Amino acid sequence: MIYYKVTLRVQNEAGVLARITTLLRKYQINIQSLDVAPIDGEEKFSDIHMLIQPPRAQVEIVMQKLQKLIPVISVLYKEHS
Amino acid sequence: MTNSPSKLGSDLFCEALADAGVELMFGIPGGVVLPLYDKINKYGHHIRHILPRNEQGGGFAADGYARATGKTGVALGTSGPGATNLMTAITNSYMDSIPVVYITGQVGEDFIGTDAFQETDVIGMSMPVVKHSYLITKAEDIPRIVREAFYLANSGRPGPVHIDIVKDVWFHEISGKLDDTMDLPGYSPLPEVCSDSEIEKLNKLLEKPDCKPVIFAGHGIEISKAQKELQLFAEKHNIPVISTLLGLGSFPQGHELWAGMIGMHGDAVANYMAQDANLLIGIGCRWDDRITGKLESFIQDTTFVHIEIDASEINKIVPTELPLLGDAKEVLGRANKILTEHKFPEWNSQMSELKEKYGFLDFTINPENDTPKLSQARLLKMLSDTTDGQAIVASDVGRHQMWTGRFYRFAHANSHLSSGGLGTMGYGMSAAMGASLGSPDREVWTITGDGGFKMNIQELGTLAEYKIPVKIAIMEDNALGMVRQWQTLLFKGNHSHSEFSNPDFVMLAKSYGIPGARAKTYEEAQAAIDEARNTDGPFLIVFEVDPDEHVYPMVPPATALGDQALCDADLLKDDTNKYNEDDLLQGHT
Fold first, then answer.
1. What share of chain A is helix, strand, coil (3-state, %, to 5)?
2. Which one of A68, A71, A74 has the shortest CB-CB distance to B312?
3. Which fold has domain B7-174?
4. A23-70 per-position pLDDT tens digit
5. Which of B21, B87, B557, B582 could make an S-S bridge to B587, C-beta 3.0–4.6 Å?
6. What pLDDT does B53 receive?
7. Radius of gyration of chain A (CA)
C-alpha cells in the first residue's frame, strides 16, 4: 500500500487531533508518523504532518472529510515514496 | 452584545439562545444544569421550554421541529446519563443532516478527569456524529460559541452541533462588552461552487443518442428549498423524477414525470427506471445502500451527474462523470437558464408502460377484506385520502415507515418526517411532538409500529401535559414487523425474538388522559381517524394489522434493483427463487 504525506493546517486548540484521529479510525487508517507544532510566530494555528496508509480508493474521500472538520483550515496531501 | 452591569454565565447563556432566535427548546434538568434552570423561566417570553420524559424523546422532538419548520432545534440534557440519552438523537440528526443544537451540562472544571458523579466524556462520545462540538469552560466564550453553533448547524450542509458546558460557567460573573464575532477560519458553507461551463456539460450528456435520463431527488432539494427549480428542470428536459425516502415532498406526486420512490422498498416503477436509466442526475443525495441495491449493477453502464453541496459526497459511492458542486437551488436555477430543452419521448413512454403494468402508486394495496386483519398499506391510503395529504406525518421505523413513504401523498414540503439514515425506532411520536409545537396550525400524525412506539412510550406524558395535538396511529401486529418479515422470507420463518405481547394501548393512553380508539375493521378505522381529527389535543388509535402483510417490492440484500421481489413467491418458492441464498444471508443488511 502507498504512503501519503498529509499536511493539515488547524486551529491550535484542545481536541483538534482527536477530531482528526477519530475520522482516521473510522476509516481504519493507521498513522505511521505524526508531528504537531504551532506555525512560526502564531499561536493561533498549528501544522500537523502525518504519514498515513489509506487504501488508494479512499484517499480523496478521507481528505475531503478531513477538510470538512471545522478547525481544519487546509489539507495538502501527496504520495510519499 | 452588551452586558453591563455584571451578569452570570447562566443569564448570558439564556440571552445567547434568545439572540440566536430560539423560540422552543426541549430539556430535562439535573445537577450540573440546575443553575441554568434557575434562570430559564425568566426568558420564557423568548424561549418556550418543554420537559420531555426522556432526553432521547426531547432530542427527537428537536429534530422533528427542525424538519418541520426548517429552523434549528434545541435539546438539552444534564451531564452523564442525560447526555448519553441524547446520543441516539444526535446521531439521528447527523445521519439525516438536520440542524439541531444539542446542549449538555458537564461537571465542574476541577472535577473533569476525576470520574466524578455523572461525569462522562460526552464530547468524545459525540465526536464522530456531529458537525462540530464545543466545550465551554469560560462564560466570556458563551456569546461567540452559541452564535457559531447555530450558524454551523443551519448553514451549508446542515447538521447537529453539540455544546458541553462545565458547571462553573453558570456562576462566572462577567461585566463589560463581550465579543461575539465568529471565528471560523476553516469553515465555509459553500466551499466550492461549479461554473456555468461545467453545468453546460450536461447538455452534451443529455444529447447522447439513446440517452435515458432519470433525476434522482434527495433530501437536499427540501433542505435548499429547490422544489420549484427541480420541477422546472424536469419539465424543461422531460426527465422522469424519482426520489429517496427523505426526498419525498421534493416533487409533486401527481405529476406525469413522477416515477416514485426508489429503494429496497421503493416503488416498482422507480426501481425499474433507475435500473434501466443510463444517465442518473442525483441532486442533494448520498447514494445510500438502501437505494442503490447491488452497487455493481447500479453503476453498470450508467453515467452519473451529482449536484451536491458537500464535496466529500462526490465519488464516495458512485463514480461521477460530472460533479456539480453547490447549493441545489442555485445550481438548478442556473441550469434552467443555461441549458437547452430536451425531449425523450420513447423513454417517457417506457415509464408510462411501467406505471400501467405495475399499478403505479397503488401497488400492493390489498383488496378489501382479504385477510382477517387490517392492511397497513390500505390504512395509509385511507389516512392520506381523509387528510387530503395536508398533514405532517412523522413515521417511526419499519414496515409502516415504508408504506407511509409509498402511500401518503404529501401535499407540502417539510411534512414527511422519517429517520432515514439511522433508522431509529422510537423516533416517530417524539418527532411529531416537536413538529406540532413548531407548526401549531398544521394537522400532525405519527404512524408507528407497536415495537417502536414502546421505545419512547413515555412521551405520551409530554403530549398529555402540554396538550400537544398529535394523532397517534399504532400499527399493532405484536411483532417487530420488518424483522419478522426478513425472518419469514430470508431465515425460513424462524421468528427469533421478534414477537411480543402488548399492554392495552388505549387503556394506557386513557390513564394519561388521552382519548383513544381501537380499530379491527376498515369501518372502525375510518371512524377512528375521523374521531381523532375531530378531537382537540392528542388522540391514539390502535389498528390491529396483519403481521403477515409483507412490504413489496423488496430488493433483497446484494440484489440489483431490477431483480426486486414483487411478492412472496419471488422469495419463497424454490422453483421461482432467482436469488442466491448465500448473498441474501451474507449480503449487507
1. 30, 40, 30
2. A68
3. Rossmann fold (3.40.50)
4. 999 999 999 999 999 998 878 999 999 999 988 778 999 999 999 999
5. B557
6. 98
7. 12
Tell me the average pLDDT of chain B: 94
B187 touches chain A (CB under 8 A): yes
Check CB contact under 8 Å for B312 and A64.
Answer: yes
Cell of B114: 476525576
Nearest-neighbour CA in chain B from A59: distance (Å): 10
Q: At what angle do helices B328-338 and B227-237 cross, to 10 degrees?
A: 30
Q: Which of B42, B117, B173, B321 is catalytic?
A: B117
CB contact under 8 A, B127 and A19: yes
Domains B7-174 and B196-357 share a fold: yes
Grid cell listed for B107: 461537571
**pLDDT for the residue numbered B573:** 66
- Please state whether the peptide bond connecting residue A54 to the residue before it is cis, i.e. omega within 30 degrees of 0: no
CA dihedral B311, B317, B321, B325 (to 10 degrees): -20
How far B141 CA lies from chain A's nearest CA (Å)? 14
Whole-number pLDDT of residue B586: 66
pLDDT, tens digit, for every residue of B220-230?
999 999 999 99
Among residues of chain B, what percentage have pLDDT more than 70?
95
pTM reported for the whole predicted model: 0.96
The C-alpha atoms of residue A16 and residue A61 are separated, in whole angstroms, by 19
Judging by beta carbons within 10 Å of its beta carbon (0-12, 13-18, 19+), is residue B130 exposed, middle or buried?
buried
At B419, list the grid cell: 429517520
Please report the ipTM that was assigned to this predicted complex: 0.96
* Domain B376-544 class in CATH: alpha beta
Rounded to an integer, what distance in angstroms lies between the CA atom of residue B296 and that of residue B294? 6
**B214 or B569, higher pLDDT:** B214
Domains and CATH numbers, chain A: 3-80 (3.30.70.260)
Give the active site residue among B87, B261, B482, B554: B482
> pLDDT tens digits, residue range B231-254?
999 999 999 999 999 999 899 999
Q: Using a CB-CB distance cutoff of 8 angstroms, which residues of chain A are in contact with residue B185?
A: 11, 73
| Residues B507 and B480 sit within 8 Å (Cβ to Cβ) | no
CB atoms inside a 10 Å sphere around CB B229: 21
Is B184 in contact with A60 (Cβ distance < 8 A)?
Answer: no
Superfamily of domain B196-357: TPP-binding domain (3.40.50.1220)
Reduced to 3 states, what is the DSSP secondary structure of residue B572? helix
